[in-house]
Design goal:
The structure holds two protein chains of two kinds. Chain A is α+β, with helices and mostly antiparallel strands. Chain A has one domain: Sufe protein. Chain: A. Chain A is built from six helices and four strands, in the order ααβββααααβ. Chain A has a four-stranded mixed beta sheet with strand order 3-2-1-4, with helices on one face. Chain B has two domains: 2-47 and 317-425, Aspartate Aminotransferase, domain 1, CATH 3.90.1150; 60-314, Aspartate Aminotransferase, domain 2 (3-Layer(aba) Sandwich), CATH 3.40.640.10. In chain B, helix 5 (114-129) runs parallel beside helix 6 (148-157) and helix 13 (364-373) packs across helix 15 (408-425). By secondary structure, chain B is of the alpha/beta class. Chain B has helices at 2-6, 15-26, 57-70, 80-100, 114-129, 148-157, 174-180, 203-211, 232-235, 260-265, 300-316, 318-336, 364-373, 386-391, 408-425; strands spanning 38-39, 42-43, 45-46, 108-111, 135-139, 160-164, 185-191, 217-220, 239-243, 254-258, 276-279, 284-286, 342-344, 354-359, 376-377, 379-381, 397-401. The two termini of chain B are 34 Å apart. Classes of the chains: A alpha+beta, B alpha/beta.
Amino acid sequence: MSALRELYQQVILDHNRNPKNFREMTDATGKIEGYNPLCGDHYTVFVRLEGDRIADISFTGAGCAISKASASVMSSVLRGKTREEAERLFQDFHGLVTGTQVSAEEIERMGKLAAFAGVSEFPARVKCASLPWHTLHAALDGNSQPITTE
Amino acid sequence: MQTMTVQHTKSPASDRELLERFEAIRGCRHHFPLLRQRVNGKPLVYFDNAATSQKPQVVIDATLRYYEEENSNIHRGVHYLSERATQAYEGVRVKVQHLLNAAHQREIIFVRGTTEGINLVAYSYGRTVVGAGDEVLISCMEHHSNIVPWQILCQEKGAKLRVIPITDRGEIELGEYEKLLTPRTKIVALTHVSNALGTINPVKVMVGMAHARGIPVLLDGAQAVPHMKVDVRDLECDFYAFSAHKAFGPTGVGVLYGTTKLLDAMPPYQSGGDMIKSVTFEKTIYNDLPYKFEAGTPNIGGGIGMGAAIDYINEIDLASVAAFEHELLDYATRRVEEIPGLRIIGTAREKAAVLSFVIDGIHPHDIGTILDDEGIAIRTGHHCAQPVMQRFGVAATARASFAFYNTKEEIDVFLAALHRVREVLA
């Protein structure tokens, strides 16, 4: 498979076309904007924590296929996870897209997130894939200032 | 479009002459060694010329020769090499003077690029003449480098930054411009050619309208100088800035032109060596123009390269280049109509070879990545012109910008790649 097909995998294209959890949340416990000033990607991530667990997660906004799919997959993977589990997945995902995490086992363990492995071949697109995650990370930390990738 | 550009030549060219000139321009592509490479296994198609141009071999050679044979500091040494380097560097000033048809060599200030040229004027001239309640007038289609220096100045002085609106085509609303010229307006700063839209502004008319009210005008010529003959005395502008790197020269060097009258009255921008006549701890006497504005050892090698680029521009004949680039733009504009959902941003009647566009449901960033996979280099994003993006209601565009070394065949490759973008993502 070419690097390009590796990047735009079917999973990513599907989530871009029909993003999951693409809605506002009125009872969110955390809400934060994420912005990539370079390309104009702009999302708001909503999260509702119940105790230590992510009871609900959603997002709104616009951007490229990679960032939108990333937000969509992230939201479906993280629902029901504890903050600690979410944090670990964030680290794994970051390793995956920056190409530092190479073990096939680890990739296997990441499930749907593994579709983003191809991003590491496109350094200019790493920020697209990680923007929703950085945004969520800040929301879980209780920040309210918008996050930018720059 | 040809008739418009032919006006730039002294005598109108016949169709046959024009065809011969086009043939000569097509022969120039091999002067650019970088264009021979392959990217992702495909022949490079370089359509990011509004960001920076490629360099002909003569510019690369001149820069190399300077470092191999002439490198020395200028304006101070008594030795052979210093004199030789000084002569070569100052010779470039004369070349720039002729390129812009400036009245005097002293009106050519060497700077790092357009951005520094504008900052120099905002800092030195702006801080002298702009006060509380005054206004600085720019247009909606400015690059950030012709917005932010003025914004900072206005904030500092309690002045107001006013913005000339543009039409849906991306043209200046001249009636609105006229209304915005008031007794409080202290300077107008305008782009000659828009980097994001390609619009060629009617700057001569606009300078005239400002001058009728005694208001000076700065023109940002970054996108104009590589593509058309610029005559600062014909335009009657007070300041004109451009960068060498967009005009086939090296990065890190450029020019600010200013009239002697204004430059003489302006305080220095930066201070240090070269810009002084004498220094004691009590008092410094500044140097004459242009050196008053050239503190420190300049980018000598870059300046020499810029000189070689100007020689090159003079040889290729900018009037024919403009006509040729219009042919490329017209061809590309016609061809992209076959892409469903594609919308061109910037459809001014007078346009340089910039094709900014969006495709329904596909983000420009994804277009850029897929084109890159085909060896095609375009720019995606807001092009350092966020206000004009907001004017058109888009966060970003994809932008193909052409130079005379591009070909219709490359535009065909570009079109095939745009179809592929839709296949992959639509």
